[in-house]
Each structure stands twice: as C-alpha cells, then as structure tokens.
Amino acid sequence: MAGEHNTVYLLGSIHVLRAEDGGLPQVAEDAYRDAERLVMEIDLDDELAGDPAALAATMQRMAMLPTGQSLHTVLGPDYAAVKEHAQKAGLDLAILDPFAPWFVATVLLQVELAKRGFAPELGVEQTIATRAAADGKPIQGLETAEQQFAMLAGLPMPQQKRFLLMTLEESDDLDAEIRELLSAWRSGDTARLAKVLGDDFDEFPELYRPLTEDRNRAWVHEIVDLLDDQDDYLVVVGALHLVGRNSVVDLLQQRGLRVTQQ
Fold first, then answer.
1. Segments forming the whole domain that contains residue 113
2. Within 10 A of 67 (CB to CB), how many other CB atoms are there?
3. 207 pLDDT higher than 90
4. Strand locations in the chain, DSSP E?
5. How far is 36 from 181, CA to CA, in rounded Å?
6. Res. 48 pLDDT band, cuts 50 70 90
7. From 7, 90, 150, 241, which residue has the greatest number of CB atoms within 10 Å?
8. Residue 261 counted as domain residue
9. What's the start-to-end Cα distance of the chain, in Å?
C-alpha cells in the first residue's frame, strides 16, 4: 500500500517452521530490506514476549480454571476423546486438568508441531525479529501477549470447548494441512490459503469472529495510521489473517485503499 510519503508492506507469516523449510521468499526479503520499521502481531522486543519462561508462566496463570472446576468437569463427555488424543501424542492429560480448554488446545497443537520438527524460533516472526535487532530496525506490536491470552481466556466455555475440538480435528489431518499451507504460502496462492482458513472454520463458524475477524478489525485501524508516516513499514501477521472474508486485506480494501500483491 502506498501512503503519501511511504509504503506499507503486508507479509503473511507462518509462525513455526522447520529447518528444511528454507529462508524467506524473495518478495519478503525485498520488503524487509526496504522497510525502516516493522510491525508484528506481538512486539518480540517486549520484555514479556522476549522471556519464554515469564511468557509461559503468564499464560498458565491466565489459563487456570476457577476453584472447583477442572478440565475433566468442564469437558464432560468430550473428555475421553481429548484424553485419547493426548495419549497418542505422548501427553498425560491429567497434568493439564487445572487448565482451561483453550490452553489445552494450544499445548496439544504445540506438541504435535514439535514432533514434526516445527519450532517458533525458525518461524517468520522470530527470523525477522532477530535480523531486525542486528540491523537496528525497531519493532512495534499490534497486540501484547497478555491481550492474546486474555482474548482466548475470554471465550465462553462452549467456544473454548469447540476451539479444543477444532484443534483435535486439525491434528488428525495435520501433515496434509501443513503441506498445503506451506505450498500455498510460498507460491503466494491466496485462494488456496483462504481455502485452508475456510476448511478450519467451516465446522466451527462461531470461532471465526473472536479468533480472526475481531482481531483483524482492531489491527486495521493501526495499519491505516502507518500510511501517514514518512518511514516504510513491513507489517507481519499470520498468513491466514490476510485472506478470506473480513481479512486485513479485505477490510483495507473496504476503506478504499489499494492493496496489490507482489
């Protein structure tokens, strides 16, 4: 997008990658070199975001169920299926009994990705943040880590349970979905990326608004403000936030802004 005196680039990221997935696509490299400043979902230079132990402790604190509740009691009949899935992943679900379903969903997905060699330090954000620190390029965040946790913790319990069940369904087809996602991402195939997003939420439409759409709307206000600056910006958000209904790109275009793909 072109402002009066600057350019704002939008880069869809993959949060976790494997060593064999290679570096950034050339178009991303070009945008990074041109940008003086970076914007990410979370400012990875933030004190909390930059301390994995403190981040994990904060997440666990915000994920604790109220006294008298447990994962077993809030899941009810669905507990057996979640337990079976956890056992297959090599995880003792009893350890997670004090925690809310959204946290359990996150842990199970992390375990499945780690088994396949995916790691956040190899993902797009961390790769770019490390380079930006060396190059002296400042980073700002669209959200804080605590805001992300609060969003998940604020989901009503039925939606948290649906989020966990959606994660289990994704895990069943994770290898195929990863291949499709990475292929579409590297080729810049937005139609295929949108299909991946659509497939995830087709069975759980009530999760699309809080997990995706509401966040997109909040981010767009800040992204539009960047067009009044003198510096060029590279905005890095999850790739699936840039495609589909009421995506960041869609919402920007609804405001009359011209967003072109490179």
1. 8-20+32-254
2. 6
3. no
4. 8-13, 37-42, 139-143, 233-238
5. 29
6. low
7. 241
8. no
9. 11
pLDDT digits (tens, 9 = 90+) for 78-107: 999 999 999 998 999 999 999 999 999 999
Amino acid symbol at 161: K
Phi, psi dihedral angles at 97 (to 5 degrees) = -60, -30
pLDDT category of residue 258 using cuts at 50, 70 and 90:
very high
pTM value is 0.91
**Lookup: tokens for 156:** 């009503």
Whether residue 207 lies inside any domain: the answer is: yes
Strands 233-238 and 8-13 turn out to be parallel
Separation between Cα atoms, residue 250 and residue 199, nearest integer Å: 19
Interhelix angle 174-187/190-202, nearest 10 degrees: 150
**DSSP β-ladder status, 139-143 and 233-238:** unpaired
Domain count, the chain: 1
Asked if residue 27 belongs to a domain, the reply is: no
Q: Which amino acid is at 68?
A: G
Give the pairing type, strands 8-13 and 37-42.
unpaired
CA pair distance 118, 203, nearest whole angstrom: 26
Distance separating alpha carbons of residues 212 and 250, to the nearest angstrom: 13
Per-residue pLDDT of 179-206, as tens digits, reads 888 889 888 899 998 888 777 777 778 8
H or E element, residue 70: none
Residue 245 covered by a domain: yes
In 3-state terms, what secondary structure has residue 169? helix
**Would you say 70 and 45 are in contact if contact means Cβ atoms under 8 Å apart?**
no
Which token pair is 83? 């337990």
DSSP code string of 128-166: HHHHHHHHT--EEEEE-HHHHHHHHHTS-HHHHHHHHHH
Kindly report the number of other CB atoms within 10 A of residue 79's CB atom.
16
